[in-house]
Design goal:
36% strand; 4-stranded antiparallel beta sheet; mainly beta; 238 residues; 2 domains
Length: 238
Amino acid sequence: MLVCWGSVDARGHVIANASHAPTPVGGIDHVIALSSHAAVRDNGEVWTWLDGGAPKPTGLAHATELAERAFPCALADGAVTCFADKPVCGDKPVDKPKKPKKSKPKPKPKAKKPEPPPVPTSVAFALPAGKVGHLAFSTGTCVQTATKRFDCIDLDHACKVERPWPALVTVEQISGACARLTNGSVRCGASGGPAAPVVGNVTNAITIAATAARGCALTKDHAVLCWEGTSAATPITF
């Protein structure tokens, strides 16, 4: 069951004067993945909603991953499909101004009965990311490609593909803002600079778990190493 609510405090408690109390959402169930404006059911169907709108099926099936930044994006069959109130990717920038057209004055229309506001709808569009293995950084617009590269989509320039950290070319796993590479090293791109620094002391990682602030790696010799930001990792003793 999907349940939504209004304002909550830092502990997840509904604020007393919130506009919405926790309320079951009708029409959708068996949800296995969720973002602010989309959900994936256990059969791979993707449902979306805009602010104030009810969940509606998008027609996209076989989804395995879901992420959201400005809008929700889903990975299905190696392709990334996103949903917004208008297409974002295209040959021209979405918000490119148009030249005003001259028009003849029109007669004033007769008064009509007010029409109900239109029901919010979403528009699906594909990101030009090629064959994708996984969504990355929980944004939907950065991906781990099938060729083990790390690519992002620049939404300010008609969704062109960019590589913010060129060193991430043999990516085996993405977690938080860090990547585990084929050689067992770990690089993190949370510093905001053009390079993704290597995390010191990690040379044979087999899996990682990270956020933008910190991370840990399990190594081939069963050691656990953790780090803060992009500083060197230190062993953790249990």
